[in-house]
Automatic annotation (TrEMBL):
Protein species of origin: Aphanomyces stellatus
Enzyme class label: hydrolase
InterPro entries: 6hp_glycosidase-like_sf (IPR012341), Glyco_hydro_47 (IPR001382), Glycosyl_Hydrolase_47 (IPR050749), Seven-hairpin_glycosidases (IPR036026)
Protein name in the entry: alpha-1,2-Mannosidase
EC number in record: 3.2.1.-
Annotated gene: Aste57867_19964
Gene Ontology biological process terms from the UniProt entry: carbohydrate metabolic process
Catalytic reaction annotation: N(4)-(alpha-D-Man-(1->2)-alpha-D-Man-(1->2)-alpha-D-Man-(1->3)-[alpha-D-Man-(1->2)-alpha-D-Man-(1->3)-[alpha-D-Man-(1->2)-alpha-D-Man-(1->6)]-alpha-D-Man-(1->6)]-beta-D-Man-(1->4)-beta-D-GlcNAc-(1->4)-beta-D-GlcNAc)-L-asparaginyl-[protein] (N-glucan mannose isomer 9A1,2,3B1,2,3) + 4 H2O = N(4)-(alpha-D-Man-(1->3)-[alpha-D-Man-(1->3)-[alpha-D-Man-(1->6)]-alpha-D-Man-(1->6)]-beta-D-Man-(1->4)-beta-D-GlcNAc-(1->4)-beta-D-GlcNAc)-L-asparaginyl-[protein] (N-glucan mannose isomer 5A1,2) + 4 beta-D-mannose; N(4)-(alpha-D-Man-(1->2)-alpha-D-Man-(1->2)-alpha-D-Man-(1->3)-[alpha-D-Man-(1->3)-[alpha-D-Man-(1->2)-alpha-D-Man-(1->6)]-alpha-D-Man-(1->6)]-beta-D-Man-(1->4)-beta-D-GlcNAc-(1->4)-beta-D-GlcNAc)-L-asparaginyl-[protein] (N-glucan mannose isomer 8A1,2,3B1,3) + 3 H2O = N(4)-(alpha-D-Man-(1->3)-[alpha-D-Man-(1->3)-[alpha-D-Man-(1->6)]-alpha-D-Man-(1->6)]-beta-D-Man-(1->4)-beta-D-GlcNAc-(1->4)-beta-D-GlcNAc)-L-asparaginyl-[protein] (N-glucan mannose isomer 5A1,2) + 3 beta-D-mannose
Length: 539
């Protein structure tokens, strides 16, 4: 089906320097064209897409493990609802609602919608949908700065998945309004958005990173399908075309440095990482291919190249009792070569799940074998801490220390008071000032690996992690808090915020880990990087 190109009512029109005059003509309509014909077009598009709504009833009966997760979600939501309802996040130090940056748009509420639906929390879900209808539009009109990336994956993604699950038209309308505001961020000479944007005046701030610009695509492409408005696809496809062109010219191994310059180019001096600021770019290479019904092979080829190079250059065996496999970073030396950093970020623990998902969709068997090895390392990062909770990063000693950065070599940190060997940790060190902020990556990978292998070990590991969250992070008044010094048996609360991803991702993935495979099956859905499920449109 040819993509009809329409501009929705309320879209702020602009002519970015990268958008050609012919494309701009196709991407816009006159005011005269926009009245009854546009509404008729949108209604037809809406009617056609109604057949793609979620058809399975939400859960009302739970297994023992599921029930524990539901109780955790109810407890987390109770704290948010009582002290922070309608605000971005719950501040666990003051037990008040606060903005995540400085434009408070109900981040946790919208991020949690699909989790509540799937768990059968009907009253909470309907109350939140009412807030989206009556309050969210006013919130968007207030001044303030948001992260383009975080707002896209959490808020836009949350609205789109809630629309798919519920079929409530006003949720799609809210998604369109938000996307039109976010679309102002593409109004740069290069078409590459800056990191932050004021939703009211469209002014952008700060350089972006690889993950920030390479993780907008699923959300805007899905919205383009739902609204038959190809503008959204044009914006984010331009970003990918720019990145893949640079990859072809300068980075033939498929591994891209994480910083983006003011001109929208890749900064070759920055590190290469599957952790912070790089991670979800690679995730979305795979998922854009899957989401295209495996038609858009340029993403498959880029993904395969990157994973092959990752295995060759960024995966090492660690010295220790557990024979662990680690995924480190690559830093740039003065002579232009790169050194391996023998640390593993918790953020990189999404990689086992990504590799297993790739295998599920036809990648070679070694992807699954590497996924299993890295998953063991991620679990050991939890299991060898006294609290049962992983730190945000761990430092290892690797077998072959050639081209290994001394700065990140655990062997050199044993006598450093800033690093703790921990009473139990046999394989790695963590910084003394370490923390766990309720991140989802490890349990995300457990869920996918369980669905691909049906090995009960992955469920047992998930139970241990859930035990640790309940024991160390639960707040008596309601909600959960991140913790500091996880190498101690009794870590203390970090007095920060309950991140919206705890309900949206961590607890949702734990629920799915203990659920049957037909709840959001992997051959019918793609999860965005915030765990919001989008149905794969069959061509």
């Amino acid at each position: 089906m040819a993509w009809a190109i329409f501009c929705l009512v309320g879209l702020h029109l602009f002519n970015p320097g990268w958008l050609s005059e012919s494309n701009l003509y196709e991407a816009t309509l006159t005011e005269h064209d926009q009245n009854p014909s546009l509404r008729n077009h949108l209604n037809k598009c809406y009617t056609r897409n109604r057949t793609k709504f979620y058809s399975k009833s939400p859960s009302i009966e739970y297994s023992g493990d599921q029930k524990r997760v539901v109780e955790a979600v109810v407890w987390a939501w109770s704290g948010y609802k009582k002290y922070a309802f309608g605000h971005d996040v719950l501040d666990t130090a003051t037990m008040k609602g606060v903005a995540w940056l400085n434009h408070d748009i109900g981040l946790t509420l919208i991020d949690s919608l699909d989790t509540m639906f799937l768990l059968g929390m009907t009253n909470e879900f309907q109350e939140s949908l009412l807030w989206v209808r009556e309050v969210f539009p006013e919130k968007l009109q207030k001044g303030g700065v948001v992260s383009v990336f975080e707002t896209t994956i959490r808020v836009l993604g949350g609205l789109l998945s809630a629309y798919h699950l519920s079929g409530e038209r006003h949720v799609l309308d809210a998604a369109v309004t938000l996307a039109d505001s976010l679309s102002q961020s593409f109004n740069t000479l290069s078409g590459i958005p800056l990191s932050l944007i004021n939703l009211t005046d469209g002014v952008g701030h700060e350089q972006s990173t690889l993950a920030q610009i390479g993780t907008l695509q699923l959300e805007f492409k899905y919205l383009a399908q739902l609204t038959c408005n190809n503008n959204y696809r044009v914006y984010v496809e331009h970003i990918m075309n720019s990145l893949l062109q640079e990859m072809t010219q300068y980075y033939p191994d498929g591994l891209l440095p994480i910083q983006i310059s003011d001109e929208g180019r890749i900064d070759s001096t920055s590190i290469i990482s599957f952790g912070a600021n790089g991670d979800s770019y690679y995730e979305y290479l795979l998922k854009q291919w899957i989401f295209s019904d495996k038609k858009d092979d340029k993403y498959k080829l880029a993904y395969e190249m990157a994973i092959k190079s990752m295995k060759e250059k960024m995966v090492r065996k660690a010295v220790g009792l557990s024979n662990l496999t680690i995924l480190g970073d690559l830093s740039l030396n003065k002579d232009g070569t790169r050194s391996f950093e023998a640390k593993m970020q918790h953020l990189a623990c999404f990689v086992p799940g990504m590799l297993a998902l790739g295998f599920f969709h036809g990648m070679p068997i070694w992807h699954l074998e590497l996924a299993k090895e890295l998953m063991q390392t991620c679990f050991v990062m939890y299991d060898e801490m006294e609290s049962g909770l992983a730190a945000d990063e761990a430092y290892f000693q690797v077998e072959n220390e050639k081209n290994v950065s001394p700065k990140h070599n655990a062997r050199l940190k044993h006598n450093n008071p800033n690093y703790s060997p921990n009473y139990n940790a046999k394989d790695f060190l963590v910084p003394t000032q370490n923390e766990n902020i309720l991140r989802p990556e490890a349990v995300e990978s457990l869920m996918i690996l369980y669905r691909v292998t049906h090995d009960e070990m992955y469920r047992s590991w998930g139970r241990k992690i859930l035990d640790a969250f309940e024991l160390g992070c639960q707040i008596p008044e309601g909600g959960f808090s991140g913790v500091m010094e996880v190498h101690l048996k009794n870590p203390y609360h970090n007095d920060k915020v309950m991140e919206s991803f705890f309900i949206a991702e961590t607890l949702k993935y734990l629920f799915l880990l203990f659920s049957d495979d037909d709840i959001l099956p992997l051959d019918e859905y793609v999860f965005n990087t915030e765990a919001h499920p989008f149905p794969i449109f069959r061509h």
